[in-house]
Amino acid sequence: APSPDWVPGPDPARALAEVRALFADVHGGEPTGVWAAPGRVNLVGEHVDYAGGTSLPLALPHRTLVALRPRDDGRVRVVSAWAPDEPWEGALADVRPVRHPDEDRDEDRDEHEDRDEGEDRDEGEDRDEGEEGDRSVQGWPAYPAGVLWALGQPDDPGWDVPGADLAIASDVPVGAGLSSSAALTCSTALAVSDVLGHGDDDATRSVLVDACVRAENDVAGAATGGMDQQASLRCRAGHLLLLDSADGTVEHVPFSLEEHGLVLLVVDTRATHELTDGQYAARRADCARAAGLLGVEHLARAARGTSVEEVLERLHAAGADERVVRRARHVLTEEERTHALVELLRADRPQDVGPLLDGSHASLRDDHEVSSVELDVVTEAARGAGALGARMTGGGFGGSAIALVRTGDVDAVARAVTTASADAGHPRPQLVAVTAAQGAERVA
Ligand code: ADP
Ligand code: MG
């Protein structure tokens, strides 16, 4: 049987040396500073941020570092150790938004309720091609360039953003559902904020969150709901971030598994499926439709003061089709699970949250239909080998799962998910045990 593949732990000193060397190599001299922002995993509260729901992410010890030095000629030059042969240089004034992927799709969705995967595929490909051609910045540089653009938008926040030289290095696995994109945008945003002397309070962090969301959605053309950026910018070490997406308020919930003999394992399936953005936009549209039929702004809050069953009955009565009802059921039950999980943590009972994690996975798989066969295989294998609970995390359609595991069962679970993936003919997953780390900060 294949042996488990453990992701190397983060190495902050190495990453700092790497980003400094890259900066000196490409731009010459020293950056003004270096800023770091983490990837994240979400413990529970998935696919609810765009429905005004509650999420519970934690920051990873894995971070993206941005070295930055302002320029006075309005130009932007970026290079990343992740794609050293694809640097980008351009005028900040030439960075433009693309049309939001959701806007193209929301309208025609209602007319094609029962389209199958094949039809989705064709449309997704057309859409992607059209959009790529539209972009003022192609590929990964759209993320950092988009942040500079967003922070300079006259409507909000209207900062006087200078051109800049940037170099990037990262320990965050890219495209694994651990939010390397938010780690990149958030470290860039904090760097800009700091060199502009904006201070570092909660209000400023919220401005940065919004700018990063806008950069991803509007310039990189990647649909994102805000949870990732909130987590990367606002998490605290040793805590989960209890995030209410309806109003952006947060609470910091103490989270330390070690004293309970528990480990949070992240399993990157290394399976990526195309069309994630199209599917994501479709889920968003379904939830927006349910909210519209109910006449509420935030679908996730609709069962407050009543019950999930009652809300679903009202949806039926309002003429919602079966698929929209299932999407709503995911959001509403996920909201219940998240609050139940927080209560267990506050009662110092982390060992009892497993069934809520399992329930979240089942709901995401069956009602929201955002899991994948790889995610189903690893979560089932983890449970079979003694994990207390396991679920997909992040947007789904591949990416990563999490498993809550007793310290003594870690090896067995790691072997089980590796073997099960091999038996199913899937890629060998990558594993990492994570702790709740600090959000974005200046490191040099
Ligand atoms: P995730 O955020 O889950 O890792 P995404 O698809 O949202 O996956 O974001 C991955 C994209 O973000 C990459 O394809 C790349 O464009 C950009 N990106 C992330 N990290 C880096 C990095 N260190 N250097 C350059 N680009 C990065
Ligand atoms: Mg991302």
From TrEMBL:
GO terms for molecular function: galactokinase activity. Residues 22-70 form the Galactokinase N-terminal domain. Residues 156-233 form the GHMP kinase N-terminal domain. The keyword ATP-binding applies. Its EC number is 2.7.1.6. Residues 104-132 have a biased composition (Acidic residues). It holds the Pfam family GHMP_kinases_C. Keywords: ATP-binding, Carbohydrate metabolism, Galactose metabolism, Kinase, Nucleotide-binding, Transferase. NCBIfam families: gal_kin. This is Galactokinase. It comes from Pseudokineococcus basanitobsidens. The gene is galK.
